[in-house]
Design goal:
By secondary structure, the protein is α+β, with helices and mostly antiparallel strands. 38% of the residues lie in helices and 21% in strands.
């Protein structure tokens, strides 16, 4: 195990014996084995532990355990405590994403202040498989299929050569002690669902499933590198830069197949979503001028060119409305809003753990839905209330500024306000025991003005 550990570190050029490495140690079996391997292989390291204040006494006992582990290894120990739930509320993040943001920010701080070259985590091949399927389910495209990288910035993963079973065998044979995180057994999180319910089925079919998948992932990384190189070559040919804008000659673009893929790869740098890119591609068949928006840019489909300009030059027109279509295969929004939509059958639905997701009874909605900003006189029936309420009064209750009022997005079904994004859903569209299908709306990039006020309500 130690020999393979050292070979992997060398083959991936992760670090050398002269480097000082900071180990992220939770106290679980993976990170405890990482400590033993680093010690046995003679590397210089310190131990960093985060107490996320999520499991009361259990979290405190984890911290004490890791402190004792550092003392037994005779290495420096660094620890910090976070109010993770409060940070998640303030930033409009799920608990998982909040914890990730907090720990990596702190790791970087410790590395800088204490002179460590990088931080090492204990991710292994089974984590790799879980991440692959999470990205596959979320439709992240080829970029999401390269899995966990052994080296990413100042983060290294020297355990990506081993499976969970191999790590456990090493721990047992060497009489190592570790802590069990009770939350790892909960299947309310997607990663744990895959870990406990899905991937074991693959392992029954093929004992080497995780290792074989890793081989496929490595080939996908190579494929992605070739793909990116080709895209960059095409981008330099297609995208013309001027002093005032960027533009693409439509007749030349149509020579690149498939057009929609090329267009998405070029426009993603300007913030255009896949759904909006699809609408832009469809507009190429006509001759009329059309305007499309991302959060940062405006695209004009002119007679001969697609003209891309910063939104500052062409602010979004007052009173603009954007449609949300149900195509039968997917829910497509044409709005420059960081909101995505998904239809889910009720029998496959679990209440999301993300605060950035709101859910509605799909069959009560009238498509196309409309995304727009607030207008004087808008009303809704907030979940939990019997009567309607002016949105202006709701904004006063939430102490929103004028700028926040203007930037907040509303989702409407016909004349009814279904959702004030980040604040309230309308109780008439809530999920009930009779709901057959569910529309999930997710804010994918919380806007700074709203980040502290994501107060989601579910049925």
């Amino acid at each position: 195990m130690i020999r393979r550990f050292q070979q992997f570190i060398k083959s991936e050029s992760l670090f050398s014996h002269s480097d000082r490495i900071l180990l992220a140690v939770s106290g679980g079996v993976d990170s405890v084995v990482l400590c033993r391997l680093m010690s046995e292989a003679g590397y210089k390291f310190g131990i960093a532990h985060c107490n996320f204040s999520l499991r009361d006494a259990e979290s405190d006992d984890d911290e004490k355990f890791v402190a004792a582990l550092a003392e037994s290894c005779k290495v420096p120990f660094f620890t910090t405590r976070f109010d993770t739930p409060q940070f998640a509320r303030d930033q409009g993040l799920s608990i998982q994403m909040a914890a990730r943001s907090l720990r990596y920010s702190w790791f970087e701080q410790v590395c800088t202040e204490k002179g460590y070259r990088c931080v090492a985590t204990a991710h292994h091949l089974n984590d790799q498989a879980e991440t692959f399927f999470i990205n596959l389910l979320r439709g992240t495209g080829i970029a999401g299929l390269h899995g966990i990288l052994p080296l990413q910035g100042k983060v290294v993963r020297p355990m990506l050569f081993a499976t969970r079973d191999e790590i456990m065998d090493f721990a047992v044979k060497n009489n190592l002690e570790w802590r069990e995180d009770s939350s790892n057994m909960s299947t309310k999180y997607l990663r744990n669902q895959l870990r406990h319910e899905v991937l074991p089925s693959f392992e029954k079919i093929d004992r080497d499933f995780a290792r074989n998948l890793d081989s496929t992932i490595r080939r996908l990384r190579g494929t992605e590198a070739v793909y990116r190189q080709k895209i960059e070559e095409g981008r330099s040919d297609l995208l013309e830069h001027t002093d005032n804008c960027d533009r693409i000659l439509i007749s030349y673009l149509l020579e690149f197949e498939p057009v929609e893929t090329w267009l998405f790869e070029i426009l993603r740098q300007f913030g255009f979503s896949e759904a909006v890119t699809r609408e832009i591609a469809l507009s190429l068949e006509g001759t009329e001028s059309k305007v499309f928006y991302s959060l940062s840019h405006r695209l004009l489909r002119d007679r001969d060119y697609l003209v891309i300009e910063n939104n500052d030059k062409h602010p979004e027109p007052a009173g603009s409305e954007y449609l949300v279509y149900d195509t039968g295969h997917s829910i497509i929004s044409t709005a420059p809003a960081p909101i995505t939509f998904t239809k889910v059958p009720a029998d496959r639905f679990k209440i999301p753990d993300k605060q950035t997701i709101a859910c509605f009874d799909y069959n009560k909605l009238r498509f196309p839905l409309v995304l727009r900003h607030w207008r004087e006189g808008d009303r809704m029936v907030p979940l939990g209330m019997k009567g309607s309420k002016k949105l202006s009064d709701l904004f006063i209750d939430q102490k929103l500024s004028q700028a926040e009022k203007k930037s907040i997005w509303l989702l409407a079904s016909g004349e009814d306000i279904v959702w004030v994004a980040g604040l309230r859903i309308d109780g008439r569209f809530r999920i009930t025991g009779h709901t057959r299908d569910i529309l999930m709306a997710e804010i994918t990039v919380p806007e700074p003005e709203q980040a502290g006020s994501l107060c989601w309500l579910f049925s």
